[in-house]
Model the fold of this input.
Amino acid sequence: MYDQVQLPVNEIFGPTIQGEGFVIGRRSMFVRFAYCDYEGVWCDTKYWWMPGLMTFERLTPDQIVEQLVARSRCRWVTLTGGNPAIHNLAPLLAALEDRPDPYHTILETQGSIAREWLALCDLVTLSPKPPSSGMPTHWEKLDRCIAQARNAVLKVVVLDEADYAYAWQVHQHYPNLPMTLQVCNDVGRDNAQTLLDKCRTLAERVLCDDADWGDIAVLPQLHVLLWGNKRGV
Done:
């Protein structure tokens, strides 16, 4: 029925708890796509994109939906990566929508590639990368992604004061968009306690700030607090 383009799928897992963003805590399935146009310094899952680590299989939209249905009756699915916007996900989004019990779709991307099909997602989480990542922000590309999305929110990872200042800059660019500040997770060193300590420090920084942050939330990675730094959760 749908354009059966083959998509490079790194992994399909769940049901698990959405650990990030404005749908944190939501029971969700995950489809992780291979390849990324960024190479962030502190990327916590480099197996998405790094040569020698990246593995994937090519699946059609029907095959992806078949696996999701077989694994769980969960109605939320998060499309992530890498950068899933590299690929044409329009056929997959149509297949997820055209069911008796359609899926609610969340797309996670850094906002570097605008696609018309972003409008088909129930929620698009845009995560521009702060200075500590070593990656630049192309504001015009981010603008186009926001314009394409039907429902967009922002997420900025904060490691240090420069990242905090960058988050404020993002908020000033898009003052009407909800935004989460997420503490940076050092996979090799952090555990639940250190992440909670970081989150407390960031929360206190925001609470002491006289700036008007608007609709902001300060969050850790909930899945790491629950299960640690491991794949498939």
User: Anything to note?
Assistant: The chain is about 25% helix and 20% strand. The chain has a mean pLDDT of 90. The helical segments are 61-71, 90-97, 139-148, 161-173, 192-207, 222-227. The first strand starts at residue 7 and ends at 17.
